[in-house]
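Researcher: Structure prediction, please.
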Amino acid sequence: PVLRLLEAQLQDQRREHEEEMEALKNQVDLMQEELEKQQQAFLQTLQLSPEIQVEFGLQQEITRLTNENLDLKELLEKLEKNEKKLKKQLKIYMKKVQDFEASQTVVPVERRPHERNMQVAVQRKEKDFQGMLEYYKEDEPLLIRNLIT
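Model: Predicted structure follows.
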């Protein structure tokens, strides 16, 4: 059983190797054909008059620059699209921040005296020593706003 398993693995590896070799041979053949075409074009170019050689060179450079331009335009379009998406996200987040700030300015009447006491306590604790601070979770945004201002 072990010998058969090893033989099967060896055959699989041999088959994969042969497939890779075939693919590489095809790739080499295509590259050789391309090289031959380029060599023929180069030889034809050398046989042309100097003026035509210059014109041919300019045409090739124009083609290269045109392709590069198209690539750059595509990149620019992607970047502009991304910029628009980010601006939309920024507007959404700014709106959320404004809504959050607006919701923090409207405080229930029963909580207001407690908040004044909390502010005073925060200031005293900060002056006496620096340490832990106790507060209600729902007071956290207000506490942060007061610390910032």
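Model: Confidence is low (pLDDT under 50) at residues 120-127.
Researcher: Thanks, that helps.
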